Amino acid sequence: MTPDPISREYIFIFLKGMVMGAADIIPGVSGGTMALITGIYERLVNAIGNIHIHTLQHLIRGDKKAFLDGVRAVDPLFMGSLVAGIGVAALIMSRIILFLLNGYAVETYALFFGIILASSVLIFAEVSRRGADIIVFLIAGFAVGFVIAGLNPTSLGHSLPVLFITGAIALCAMILPGISGAYITLLFNQYEYLLNAVHTLALPELITYMTGGIIGLLAFSRTLQYLLRTHHAVMLAFLTGLMLGSTRMLAGIIMQEGGFGISAILFTVAGIALIGLMEYAKRRMAASLH
Fold first, then answer.
1. How far apart (Å, rounded) are the C-alpha atoms in residues 229 and 241?
2. Local structure of residue 3 (DSSP, 8 states)
3. pLDDT digits (tens, 9 = 90+) for 141-173
4. Tell me, what DSSP letter sits at residue 4?
5. Are the C-beta atoms of residues 245 and 145 closer than 8 Å to each other?
6. What is the Cα gyration radius of the chain?
7. Phi/psi class of residue 39: alpha, beta or left (left: φ > 0; alpha: ψ in -120 to 50)?
8. Among 190, 247, 265, 269, which is 20 to 30 Å from 206 by CA?
């Protein structure tokens, strides 16, 4: 029996959600970029923008019509299909990444290393001007990232407060251009722990992480958006330096696991190539929309 056109539409949205979910698990890769490449970015932004607390207030007051109008504005079938795809991909990818980290740690971290290097270059390419202030913020970002990467994150442990704070910072990072929430969890030594939490559906840990993320977004997203809007160039320069400086941690892990041999170099190049292909696809998609 052939699915009707509406069913096919939401099957494809589910699959696009899986692509986004898989991307979000990989440090340095943005699910938002995949949304743009797969052609659902604008629809996703509009749906998220229509989420309002007023909808819940209408339900509490018994205003059924206003409540249903609010729900329809969020594009619930689209969002439900997308979130389901993201969730399924997260479950699958968590198992795959854990397998790779356990058996091929050097190659996996080298791939992440290449992804972060290439993402840093792409962020800096967005800087619209050059000047002394740009260089200063680039160096300042590098210094901050280098220091953070040199700290001992294993001493943080994996308590619920640490997961809460990690979520608050990681989800905020996702609204910054080129920054991956997964990479922030890696810097805080929570990446593998959260992968295991997703894999085993450890609800207390996952709920704590997501709660921190939601509160972080509500508390800081407007400030970050304001800074990007009013100080765009220097913010991008600082973010570029931050990512480049923080690669110290990945380089250290690779050295501990066996060093930059042939396989590590090849996977670093593969990571750079992956981001290059994604950027090419993103630009082709953006060009087709104009």
1. 19
2. P
3. 999 989 988 887 777 889 999 999 999 988 777
4. P
5. yes
6. 20
7. left
8. 247
CB of 46 within 8 A of CB of 82?
no
In 187-212, which positions are buried (b, 16+ CB within 10 angstroms) versus exposed (e)? bbbbbbbbbebbbeeeeebbebbeeb
Is the pLDDT at 225 greater than 80, yes or no? no
pLDDT digits (tens, 9 = 90+) for 236-259: 899 899 889 989 989 998 998 888
CA dihedral 83, 88, 92, 95 (to 10 degrees): 80
Distance between CA atoms of residues 205 and 163, nearest Å? 7
- pLDDT-derived band at 272 (thresholds 50, 70, 90) equals very high
Say how many residues make up the chain: 290
Q: Write the CA distances from 67 to 44, 55, 75, 117, 261, integer angstroms.
A: 20, 5, 13, 46, 59
**Host H or E run for residue 84:** helix 76-103
Residue 163 belongs to a domain: yes
- The whole-angstrom separation of Cα 90 and Cα 195 is 9
pLDDT of residue 165: 93
Tokens of 6: 């509406």
Q: How confident is the model at residue 290 (pLDDT cuts 50, 70, 90)?
A: low
| 289 falls within a domain | no
Same-domain pairing of 28 and 82: yes
**Domain total of the chain:** 2
Examine the domain organization and report whether 260 and 185 are in the same domain. yes
d(CA 286, CA 290): 7
Question: Hey, what are 97's tokens?
Answer: 């990444």
What predicted TM-score, i.e. pTM, was given to this entire model? 0.81
Whether 113 and 268 have beta carbons less than 8 Å apart is answered as yes
Domain that holds residue 61: 1-103
Contact indicator for 188, 236 with CB cutoff of 8 Å? no
CA distance 279 to 287: 12
Query: What's the average model confidence in pLDDT over 230-234?
Result: 88
Whose tokens are 């939601």? That residue is 214
Q: Which residue, 46, 80, 103, sits at the end of a domain?
A: 103
